[in-house]
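User: Can you help me understand a structure? I only have the sequence.
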Amino acid sequence: MYPEYSLYDILEVENHPSLLEFKCAETGLLLWPLVRNRFLRSIIFDLVYDTQLSKRYSHRNYGAMLQVIAKSIIHNIKHMHQTQCKVLIMATGAGNVIKNGRWFNRLGDHFAIAANRDTLLIENLFDCRWPFPRHNAHVLFHTPFKMRGMLAGRIFTKASHRRLAEDLISLARSRAKTHLNWELGDEKSSYLSRFLARQISTLPFLRQNYEQMLELTNATVVIKEEGCYGHSGVLNATARDMGLVVAEYQHGMVSAGHDVYNVAPILKQSNAYKKMLPQYFLGYGQWWNDQINIPVTKIAIGNPHRTEQSKLFSERHFAKSDILVLGDGIKTEMYLDLAKCLSEKIGKISRVVFRPHPLECSNVFSTYPNGRIADIRIDNNSDIYESFCSAHTVVSEVSTGLFEAVGLVDRVFIWDTPRARFGYPIHPFVPFSDATDLIEKICNNREGYLNFQKPNQFWAPDWRKNYLTFLRDIGGVSC
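Assistant: Let's start by predicting it. Here is the structure, written out as tokens:
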């Protein structure tokens, strides 16, 4: 049994200059950022989540994947004349929701539409969905480009790439053993070495392709979802070398326990590492920005989607009778067990609703196609704010939804688990230890209510004004 660790205990694994000596011979880029999150999450999943980091969902429809990839290629060719822009927003596509019968990217489209004449959105295809018709039609797709990079990685991987990857993983593995008494294991080590070797082989191709893409768009500002993640490093470095302003907009939970947004001191001081990051992080509010130490300039912009949806749903009146349990995308069965306990004990008083995380949504609905598990309803709203409308209580472990619910839902509870203490070492919510404890706290009707004196610390007001000011003052784009 492992002791309970904080993120900063785990970050000591990377706190050594030797990890920063591994670089790509052709691009000069650091290699540790390419595999950093996968390596650290192997540790976190073992020590904190007590589960395996793996491909959690095997239900892949390759026919559907090929179909949407073909559509995206045709779409890009047809709309290639629309590439000119001042602001290039790159989104994962995970934020796409149905809004008035059309697809809307709740993470990227607010920003894109705020400066519509000057903005191009480049989006990944998510979960084999073809996101049309849509509100913002000024969009191209990144997936065909990514596929070329993946093929290049498999075709052009050399023995030198493999040796370099193996040496780096071996060093990180040794430091994890020394500082945490944690063993990566031969199988995981081999997997991460192969993964990293392919990443190394793609770097020259990706840099060249990103240079061509940025020259084609003529953008001066790049705003990237997941910009601080290692897989964005080559784009960040390429854009910065070309003199562009690079930023990431906050897309979900960041905290003192988030491995992407907190780094060891040696990385924080490294100019080579900083080059692979955006210059700016556009956070929801000051509370979130204060939680993270990644070496970027943090600006409190606000949460566009929460602001706009709160306005919309505040005008509608619903009977608030649901207990909404928010899944995490990892331990689905654990959350379903909690929902079942709630339903058995207080299901006659309140309807229990389980809302899957986007990462587990397809798997949950394929397993339970009728949208129910006994008396528990599976939430199929594309937008969480619609789910808040009928909820009087929200329950989760580590979820941005806990914060999004504040002011919209009467009561919020956080599951007091090692993972929650790791992910949210600082939070304002009432904890519960297990289903029995939660049921008792819900039934006594005295706990879980929140009254923030300074809500702007979480959600900066006037997001549109803040965003356009950023574009003008820092990006040099007048909208």
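Now, to help you interpret it: The CA atoms of residues 19 and 159 lie 20 Å apart. The chain has a mean pLDDT of 92. Let me know which part you'd like to focus on.
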